[in-house]
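Justification of computing resources. Each target in the renewal requires a structure prediction run like the one illustrated here; the chain below, 576 residues long, is used simply to show the kind of job we budget for.
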Amino acid sequence: MLIPQLQKLLTTPITQTNRQNKSRFSVIFWYSLSLTFAVGYILMGLRKAFISQYIVSDDAREYISWMYRYINPDLFPGDLIADYFQSVTPIGYGIFYKIIAALNIDLILFSKIFPIVLGIITTSYCFAVCMEILPVPMMGFIASLLLNQSLCLQDDLFSATPRDFIYPLFLAFLYYLIRSSRFGILIVILLQASIYPLIAFIELLILFIRLFSWQNRQINISRNRKDFILFAASTIIAGIVILTFAIQSSQFGPTITAAVARTMPEYWDGGRFRYFSHNIISYWFDGRDSGFFALISPPQLLLGLFLPVILKFQSRFFLAKQLNDEVKLLLQVVIASLIMFFTAHLLAFKLHWPSRYTHHTFKMVLAIAAAISITLILDAILRWSRQNERQIFILGTIVILGAGLVFYPSSLKTFPKTPYVEGQVPALYEFLQKQPQNIVIASTSEEADNIPIFAKRTILVGKEYALPIHTKYYAQFSRRMLDLINAQYSEDINQIKDFIQKYQVTFWLLERSAFTPEYITKNTWLQQYQPVAQQASAKLQNNSLPVLATLINSCRVVETDNLVLLKTECIKAIKS
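Resulting structure tokens:
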């Protein structure tokens, strides 16, 4: 009797004929369990976010820093970096944080706690989509569990960037599409296009694909006029929003071409993006920015690849008859994603990185497909085991495999993997906060990346902000880097003074180790700026002493173990 009861508990579908109290309890139980794991994972990730005042998500430094202009419009005056990231921030994402700022909520604090809300919404829509495709509550739990494990293995909910919204919005799109809620579809497409436009292209392609069907070995066009109206309305809404965003971001355009990118070290191994690779398989398969199967984890997601085989022999799986015809939507998502993936490769880099069109959607599809596969196989095993004498062995095996699925994260060294970075020099941030808002800090130190978000002051350059995507921005950024390296390792005080005057530099942040050859030769970021990096390294190897190295003691205003902040007024006062 144990096996039948277990089967009833785990794999009994919720149908129109059995929607009773026990069935409702089953839905509530598995949905609550799904939320429990989702919130639990996120709270585990947020522990690091609050261990210090100066902790923030890695990519939040790009997107959140400039948004403090919403609170104080005088911040970052004439700041190239702030202006650039403001221009490439999707319209809806900027409006969202503008509202948060208007509510007098600290933006960094909000970016840390908001993943809880996103996780709950993501899990809820994932569970709802599963219940529409196969109304077995346990299947919804498995899918949401796998998806949340996957999200916590990457920074797809903790990044404080527009991509955090991909999962709740896309799953909402799938749900409303299955439910034929045209109003819901239009609202989601509006939000997706305004927050993460790339996925909106996939959603439009899915709507287009659904205008056609394959029957009797021929393509048939939908006769439902409302389908065409929905597609047209969605295209118009997304088109207006995306076009507005394209115009907004064009001030630093156009995007770099693939031909030019191939000549730049920034796009190869050791560079900012590592887009190109001499390994053709890696380039197309698992390249972080170029591959269609990049960053797919955990490995349990690959169980979703068995779903087509199971559907091919679905007559052998009793529960398969409960599958909604909308299971085909998973294939439509894959097709639309691959179309956009190859289109992005063809138009590189006008549509951003190709992997962005498959990385996120594939994870959602695989999580749902894996959950369906596991549920159908489990039901078939339980039905078969009714006549088997080794029921205890079979039951034990199921329990062990289930426990492995649930407790998989405990086998990892780090889970969740969070993208938080901690500022190491509070004294520096606090000093700079007290300085005028129009100051400019020059530095080759990676610590400079934290100054805009923690001190709310302008930096001349920073490794985190060295994005070689839009030509007008990166041309200016590169020029600054070349001039900075030349000046920092110059033996001519006049060259340094000219640099300070040209860029109106107020402070110069140095690492004490900056004047060793290894500081340059082992710094992959500095090595991208040739020939000046090589020339500076050669000077140091020849025991040349740059002027700045001699001014550390006389011009410093803040110092830590390895960092020294020099005041340029002191440098300019040095006689030639």
